[in-house]
Design goal:
The protein has 14 helices and 25 strands. The protein is of the alpha+beta class. It has 2 domains: 233 residues, Enolpyruvate transferase domain (UDP-n-acetylglucosamine1-carboxyvinyl-transferase, Chain, Alpha-beta prism); 211 residues, UDP-n-acetylglucosamine1-carboxyvinyl-transferase, Chain, CATH 3.65.10.10. A 4-stranded mixed β-sheet has the order 23-24-3-25, covered by helices on one side. It binds uridine-diphosphate-2(N-acetylglucosaminyl) butyric acid.
Length: 453
């Protein structure tokens, strides 16, 4: 059952939370990926910085977009559907302060509210940010964000339910070095520096394609941003920015998720909208595991190669490394590979919780909570690091599972699709935070499941 979503596309029935999956059927067909969750939501926040309306195209119809839309609306931004399908027009002309309770009520389980700080400080001189949600995959502190904001001249007042920020003397350019190339903190600096007085030099920046796309959005608005090798970004603050017209970068995480679904279920999926350049690192690993792909101008087709799947060693890293959001669906495929694979998670300290369910399904996965030493490491071992050792191939059997987080939940579903027997997966709503029309896409690919709750 589908409903009409706010971007003109269909939004999966939000009440569906439990499905029963009969596994063993390969997924075959086409899925279209829209704009990236991790770009579209940030570009929506950027609209607050413009003096005229912005148009964002290829906006995915997902829960996180709904959350940012409501947050913009409580701050007086008018958000309407654009002429093109899946586009939004964001007009900040009526922007105003909002009350703490109102902001809190609309923040959902998202981490995006923290990125409202800079734009709201420029626009209104103050910002209230509630305690943040997001997937429970580690501590997820915001110290880099707050330190950066203080560098710009913001005063941070921690309160019981969140933080209150003000900028009595305005925001000025700053010299900032991030202790780690955090995606969110880099975006925080960009969204604050573009209208700060003077030049900002950011060292240790994240350079994910979604960040480069956000830089593109800001440049369209009138910002002056340049970058050098070695993660250095310079931003020259300007007095005024105007609205933008932008088509979002495709969702790399969704493309990778469907690629792994094809590998796990021994199917074949054409991911329309996926592009090679932003997926170079993933495609190398996909090939090493035994996957096969064809690249065209319109997208990428993913399938298994002719030989059995092979074990690999992978470490997650910031771009251009193997993204932390890709290890979960890959691990499901590795349960079907011959030999022992090792996945080192170096970005978050608690991102292997989803493997418990895979073990109950019959997978042989041992998580080393303090990491393990391994030869040929590209990055030095980080204190947060964990490692998963996966031995295969092991048959998977259907079980009852509860979705732990966005990427882990998706991985549970594709494991259930590959397993023998029936699985009941509860918590599907969490997956709709980041996967547009998830159940519709599964149906189109021939998945055998029923909605049961
Ligand atoms: N960190 C700090 N202090 C901070 C900020 C981050 O210690 O102030 C640490 C984090 O705890 C983590 C590391 O730095 O260990 C990296 O975190 P980062 O800030 O890069 O992540 P994020 O901006 O919160 C975004 C995506 C995540 C994605 C990561 C890494 C959004 C909304 N979220 O999170 O996406 O995994 O970058 O690429 O853009 C997802 O889509 O499922 C998801 C979790």
């Amino acid at each position: 059952m589908t409903l009409l979503g706010t971007t003109g596309t269909t939004l999966q029935n939000p009440s569906v939370d439990t499905i029963e999956i009969r596994g063993g059927r390969p997924l075959r067909g086409q899925v279209d990926v829209r704009g990236a969750k991790n770009l579209a939501t940030k570009a929506m926040v950027a609209s607050l910085l413009g003096s005229t309306p912005s148009t964002l195209r290829d906006v995915p119809s997902i829960r996180d977009v709904e959350v940012v839309r409501s947050l913009l609306e409580v701050h007086g931004v008018s958000v309407t559907d654009g002429e093109e399908e899946a586009s939004l027009v964001l007009d900040p002309a009526g922007a105003e302060s909002a009350g703490f309770e109102e902001i809190d009520a609309h923040s959902g389980s998202s981490r995006i509210p923290i990125l409202f700080c800079g734009p709201l400080l420029h626009l209104l001189g103050q910002a209230f940010i509630p305690d943040l949600g997001g997937c429970r995959i580690g501590d997820r502190p915001i110290d880099f964000h707050l330190d950066a904001l203080r560098n710009f001249g913001a005063v941070v007042d921690k309160q019981p339910n969140g933080i209150r920020l003000s900028a009595p003397d305005g925001l000025h350019g700053a010299s900032i070095e991030l202790p780690y190339p955090s995606v969110g903190a880099t975006e925080q600096v960009l969204l604050t520096a573009v209208r700060a007085k003077g030049v900002t030099e950011l060292r240790g920046a994240a350079i994910e394609p979604e960040i480069m796309d956000l830089i593109g959005v800001l440049q369209k608005m009138g910002a002056i941003i340049s970058y050098e090798p070695n993660r250095v970004i310079f931003i020259e603050g300007v007095e005024e920015l105007t609205g933008y017209d932008h088509r979002s970068l495709f969702d790399r995480n969704e493309a990778v998720s469907w690629a792994c679904a094809a590998l796990v279920t021994d199917g074949e999926i054409f991911v329309k909208g996926a592009r090679q350049y932003e997926l170079l690192t993933f495609l190398n690993v996909f090939r090493k595991v035994g996957g096969d792909f064809d690249i065209t101008d319109d997208g990428i087709t993913f399938r298994r190669g002719e030989n059995p799947l092979k074990a690999v060693m992978v470490e997650t890293d910031v771009h251009p490394g193997f993204m932390t959001d890709w290890q979960q669906p890959l691990i499901v495929a590795l349960t079907q590979a011959e030999g022992t694979s090792v996945v080192h998670e170096t970005v978050y300290e608690n991102r292997f919780g989803f493997t418990d369910a895979l073990v109950r399904m019959g997978a042989d996965i041992v998580v080393h909570k303090d990491g393990i030493d391994a030869a040929e490491r590209r990055v030095a071992r980080r204190p947060l690091e964990q490692a998963a050792v996966i031995s295969g191939p092991t048959p998977l059997k259907g079980i009852d599972m509860v979705v732990p987080d966005l990427r882990g939940g998706y991985s549970h579903v594709i494991a259930a699709l590959a397993a023998q027997g029936t699985s009941r997966v509860t918590g599907i709503k969490l997956i709709s935070r980041g996967y547009e029309k998830f159940l519709d896409k599964l149906t189109a690919l021939g998945a055998d499941f029923d909605v049961v709750g």
